[in-house]
Description:
Helices cover 37% and strands 28% of the residues. It is α+β, with helices and mostly antiparallel strands. α8 (359-374) crosses α11, α11 (433-450) packs across α12 (452-465) and α11 (433-450) packs antiparallel against α14 (487-496).
Amino acid sequence: MKKMMKRAALTGALICLLLALFTVCAYAAEQKVDAISYKMDLKLDAKKNTLTEKVTIRVKNNTGKTVKELCLRDMTPAVLKYDMKNYGYDNKKLKTRVSSVTLKGSKKKLKLRYAKGKTVIWVKLGKKGKLKPGETGAVVVKMKTDIPKRQDRFGWQKTKNGRHYALSFCFPYLADNRNGKWQKDPYFDDGESRSWDLANYYVTFRAPKGYMVAATGTGKTSKGVTKITAKKVRDFAIVACDFMKKDTFRVKGVRVNNYYLKGKYQKTYRKFSKMVAKDSLRIFTEQIGKYPYKELDIVPCNFGMGYGGMEYPGLVMTNAASFLSGSYCDCWSLSDGLSHEIGHQWFYAVVGNREYREGWIDEGFTSYLEKDVYGLTDCEANRYLRKIDKMVSSIEAWRADRDDLIATARQDWKGTKINTAPGKYSGGQEYGPAEYDESYMFLQEVRLQLGDKRFAEFLRDYYKAFRFKVVTTRDVVKMIRSYDNSKEMNEILNFYIRM
Ligand SMILES: [Zn+2]
């Protein structure tokens, strides 16, 4: 018996070793050129409204072939073009320019080739720079861009209290690649088309003195220089403002920096955003899983009407527009928007997906967090909202509204598949309804089929299985089928998803 045990243990150890080797090999065999880190030196000029950037991109060749050329993305030409066309009154002759790309440690400019409205930059690495399989190298991108005057993710605004800068979609990055193929999804103003790759960011950000700086990761500001570190993130964002302050508190071991804009209605905003943040973070942690980063920044922006907010890893921009003018401090929208953006920390920041092609994945799961997991929970924020806004009906009434939507879902969504990329829409389809509302209905039908308890288990398992990975529609389907592969479940899958 003892001997047998020993042999079994030995065999077990051998199997483990083989499995580990296999995992390592499988990982190494993942055919991709990987961006490991971004070292960024950024300077904000608040007089000219420009951003000067020096970005060192460290890259590893995890493919079996020598890489002679890198594909970089710079979305600023597309963003500025869009703004000049659609917000031309405030944005004339905006400029952005990459002045050079060099190998790290060299002054020699590398040969560049632009494509797709200059959002794709092919960089010839030359003899010295080419990367053999397994090799690591770095390129340095120097660029300068105008910051548009716009209430958006990349833009500046002036109010009577001061200036506000949202800086995102403005940093160059390595294009994602799968099986050696570079992804060149276009800039998409209604939604996102960002990199889904995980990387470390080391950032030095210079802004005029007196600016409060919020950013992905953790940072410290001294004399106008902010040093920031953000590890294992898919994207990076900064908000700098000279009339912003912050409250800091802890929820479930996470440091939350709740920023607010100075003004007449700051008290209402501070109080309510804190409640929503506390409850959302607590409820999602308890019901889905742990939030992996040390810090979460909640940053108010003055986005226009109907704009909920924007998610980044470790940072959410929330729409505080109604609290700036004070015409009607819209706590209801803040509650929906903020809990939604916080939900994206689970489904986008941690469980990644290709936002442009399969936006339904992060938006659908996040809508479920916002509307059901948070929205239908009796918590402090929800009770307070109902106390101050009599227009908000009870949680029971919300649940009944949801059930009405489920009842008509098959008529409402007939012929529209949730996994359709914006470039493939037909028949007047626009971005939004399918990605948010229809995918929310899809998850409702899956929930009804599995039952509440099993569905809650499914969400937790899904989060655990794809933590810091990139999930595809096929992966989601596979996982649902592993829970229930009945005829009924497959009928639901076929109704909503193009297989
Ligand atoms: Zn969203």
